[in-house]
Structure formats: C-alpha cells, structure tokens
Amino acid sequence: MGMGKKILMVVTSHRQMGDKETGIWLSEFAEPYDLFKAEGYDITVASIAGGRAPVDPRSIDAEKAQKWRDAIAALEATVPVEQVSSEGHDAIFLPGGHGTMFDLPGNARLQSLIREFYESGRVVAAVCHGPAGLVGVTLASGEPLVKGRRVTSFTDEEERAVGLDGVMPFLLETRLRELGADFVAADKWANHVETDGRLVTGQNPQSGESAARKVVELLAQPVR
Predict the structure, then answer these.
(1) What span, in angstroms and rounded, lies between the C-alpha atoms of 23 and 224?
(2) In 3D, which of 129, 106, 92 has the Cα closest to residue 219?
(3) In this structure, is residue 224 part of a structural domain?
(4) Rounded distance, CA 32 to CA 96, Å?
(5) Deepest of 66, 83, 98, 144, by most Cβ within 10 A of its Cβ?
(6) Domain containing 208: what range?
(7) Rounded to an integer, what distance in angstroms lies between the CA atom of residue 56 and that of residue 118?
(8) Which CATH number fits the domain that encloses residue 113?
C-alpha cells in the first residue's frame, strides 16, 4: 500500500469562461483522489487561490455528488499554492477542467513546484487540460520541460468537438507542440495515457483514473 507516499494535487481556482461557468472537471480530480486514498497515500489538495475550488457544473450531478462526496469535501478548503512546498511529497498531480487554461499557465509558484518535482526525479502527472500547468515550466537548462518529451492532453480536435476552441486563451495541443513536445494524440474520447520517464499525461476525462494508476505504478518503483 501507500508506505507513507504523499501526493500534492493542484487544481484551478478559475470559475468563468465567457458567459459559462467552469472550474475542475470533477472526475479528473475525484477518480485519482479516491484511488490515491485507497492506496493509503497522504494527499494535500491545493489550488491557485486557495479556499473552495470551483467544480464545472457540467461535470457533476446528484449521483456523482454522492459517489465522490469525500473528494468534493476535499475541494471545500484547499491550500493556496503559494503556501505549499514540494518537500516531503512524492508526486504532483494536475487534474483538468477548462478553468486550468486560465490560471495554471501563468502561475510562477506552480511552475517552480513542478520544476522542483521534475528535476529531483519525482513524478509529475497531469490529465486533460491539466497539462496547461506544464506549458510555462522551464528547467535549469533553460529548455521547456515538455521539449522532446512524449506527452498528451485534451486535443485540439476534442476542443473543437465541444465547441470551446474559440473561448480558450490558447489551444493546448498546439501550444505543447510549439514548445517542442512529442505530442501523441489518440482518437477523441479514447482512454489514453503517455508516460515519459516520470512524466505522466492523460488525454481527456476518460483518462483520469488510468493516469492515476500509472502514478501508483511509478511510485512503487525505486527513485533513481
């Protein structure tokens, strides 16, 4: 089981895109959260602004609210990302939701945390729009973290399919490719995870649990 493993989960605080409410896509947080809890991991839930983190209303209904009540409760009082440290944590996990596209890419503290995790050989994982948090991360070499690395995310095709490509500040697949990532896209809505060393990325909401399972697998291996 967990053997004292600690996970830092960082979620969006952004609530609005145009005239639509947004936030976290609940399954992308709740499925990994429940899996990590079942593994016995200690989880710190942080958000960009702290406090109650917004859940995209399109991602929740009465059945999901009951099924994921513990995960939802964990979103009620998140720690501001400025107040968390990478020290003592074994992995960082970035769930998606369209809100992430607005407040993750430009957050210097989050970028610093991700760089610390990655350069110390710890696990960095993100799913769907969560990889928006990777786009501003530069390593000590001066290169973007994603350059030359095999990654995936919510694809441009999927963004167009949900009709939100015109609302986004940028298209995530396009931006990752521009940064030099070896971007791998599967069919729309396919459960698809890419792993490059200790970097794990999932394509869409269907990939959240699979991405989390890959994190569990990596954390069971010795750090090199």
Answers:
(1) 36
(2) 92
(3) no
(4) 12
(5) 98
(6) 6-219
(7) 29
(8) 3.40.50.880
